[in-house]
């Protein structure tokens, strides 16, 4: 994971509120600040995020909160999963899939 990709992951993590982070930690035991720390991230998870297009060499992650957008991984719409994070290449990922990849 290069420095640009680490910065992108840090940006992605800013899309989670502190309450969401706390809720996820209580429900799943996953601490987003620790488990997705760009400087200590599991190489396999980093590769998944890079290969999927969620992280690449071009910044510009954005949020999608409405409309017909769907997660590129699970296929669920924003109505089902809430906010999606979109990469410059158009790949979209929901919080549930981020957590699923981290826990597998």
From TrEMBL:
Q: Which UniProt keywords apply?
A: Chaperone, Metal-binding, Zinc
Q: List, alphabetically, the PROSITE patterns matched.
A: CLPX_ZB
User: Could you say which residues bind Zn(2+) here?
Assistant: 71, 74, 94, 97
All residue ranges annotated as the ClpX-type ZB domain in the record: 59-104
The lineage's top-level taxon is Bacteria
Q: Where are the transmembrane segments?
A: none
- For whether the record's keyword set contains NAD, the answer is no
InterPro entries tied to this protein:
Znf_CLPX-like, Znf_CppX_C4, Znf_CppX_C4_sf
Family, according to the entry, reads as follows: Belongs to the ClpX chaperone family.
Spell out the protein name for this chain. ClpX C4-type zinc finger protein
